[in-house]
Design a protein that fits this description.
Low-confidence stretches: 6-29, 364-369
Bound molecules: zinc ion
Order of helices and strands: EHHHEEEHHHHHHHHEHHEH
Number of helices: 14
Largest sheet: 2 strands, parallel
Mean pLDDT: 85
Distance between the termini: 4 Å
Strand content: under 5%
Shape: globular
Radius of gyration: 23 Å
């Protein structure tokens, strides 16, 4: 995603302009001892993000960024987006740069992220590469200002479209959009469509994407991006640097506050459960029946895993939803109908929750930004 920030103070602006871009990662950095790595979660949470001292150099991100740069080079581009540690994945509006969440720079912080949010966005090599390619799409657009052009508008639409990635209504079967990140994210906004198209262009050879998207309208977008990149090969970027907003080394929030805010963002606006729906699934509660809440508790990991896999929603969000549902079943004292119906009940429950998550993705009550 792209992130905007209020204008900087003159001092901040000055400092930012003085600072040279972070050099591309290379070689092994000297290991800096970080005393907090041995702390338990609740002690670690009291630390401020700016005091963690995490860096890209020497972390696993170094190799991932090197791979991104290799891919750009293999596609003939000399453009290399500057990468820095921020509070989440984004590209600062107007800057040819990528912010990578700071927790990816240290295994101890990845573990904390997993404990707090139940998943680590970009925590695996493949996922990280998908996100890096996506954010490079925004960064190269910022560098060359492609999205200011009329021909870009004709292909992707107006970037002035209201930016509300949380309220888009994807058409899952549309062949007008490529697929890189989950949730048909290219459909969120013209800028996201471009970033996703660029990510696919970068991950494959022209032969591969022409084959994979043969017969799709999205192929026209890939061909257009291909032409733009031919131009970029022979032209220096218009914008060479920009302000690093939300840089981890300046975030004075404690980890505890950071996670409280994120969990609130992911969990807020949970829909009210419709008791009538629950009664359709469970019936009115047979006397002496097995507690619905208890059965669901036993199946929670599988239930949450399946819904996350097929909706692409944040695991924390889905887990909270399932927990809330379990609680409501307990309040209503719902029971599972006779044993033979148990499998049917679980299927219905999974389908119901997946539909709820998907509907709320459309209506914006669940949020997702990249
Ligand atoms: Zn994006």
């Amino acid at each position: 995603m792209e992130r905007h920030d209020p204008p900087p103070s003159p001092l901040e602006q000055h400092l930012s302009e003085q600072r040279p871009p972070e050099p591309p990662p290379s070689g092994a950095a000297p290991a800096v001892p970080l005393p907090w790595t041995v702390l338990k979660d609740d002690e670690l949470l009291q630390k401020r993000i700016c005091d963690l001292g995490v860096r890209i150099a020497g972390s696993e991100l170094e190799g991932r960024i090197a791979q991104l740069y290799d891919e750009l080079g293999a596609h003939g581009l000399s453009f290399r987006p500057a990468c820095y540690l921020g509070d989440e994945w984004f590209s600062p509006a107007g800057a040819p740069a990528i912010a990578i969440p700071f927790y990816l720079a240290h295994p101890r912080l990845k573990t904390l992220e997993m404990h707090q949010m139940l998943e680590v966005e970009g925590g695996t090599p493949e996922w990280c590469q998908q996100l890096l390619r996506h954010e490079s799409g925004h960064a190269i657009d910022h560098a060359y200002r492609f999205s200011a052009r009329d021909d870009w508008h004709a292909v992707f639409g107006s970037p002035e479209t209201e930016y509300s990635p949380e309220t888009y209504q994807p058409r899952p079967y549309s062949k007008g959009f490529v697929r890189n990140l989950p949730n048909w994210y290219a459909q969120a906004h013209p800028d996201e469509d471009f970033a996703e198209t660029f990510a696919v262009w970068l991950s494959l050879t022209p032969e591969q994407w022409r084959e994979q998207y043969r017969g799709w309208k999205a192929l026209e977008k890939l061909e257009y991006v291909h032409c733009l990149m031919e131009e970029a090969k022979n032209t220096p970027p218009k914008v060479k640097r920009g302000r690093r907003i939300y840089e981890a080394s300046r975030l004075r929030r404690t980890l505890a506050r950071y996670y409280t805010e994120r969990r609130k963002l992911y969990a807020e606006d949970f829909p009210d459960f419709y008791d009538a729906d629950l009664r359709v699934i469970f019936g009115n509660g047979e006397p002496n029946g097995e507690s619905a809440a208890k059965v669901m508790r036993g199946n929670r990991p599988a239930l949450v895993g399946s819904i996350v896999r097929w909706t692409g929603q944040h695991k924390y969000t889905v887990d909270m939803l399932v927990r809330k549902l379990i609680h409501r079943c307990q309040e209503l004292k719902l029971t599972i109908p006779p044993p033979l119906d148990r499998a049917r009940v679980l299927f219905e429950l999974a389908a119901y929750l997946a539909a709820m998550v998907t509907n709320h993705l459309h209506t914006g009550r669940f949020k997702r930004f990249v």
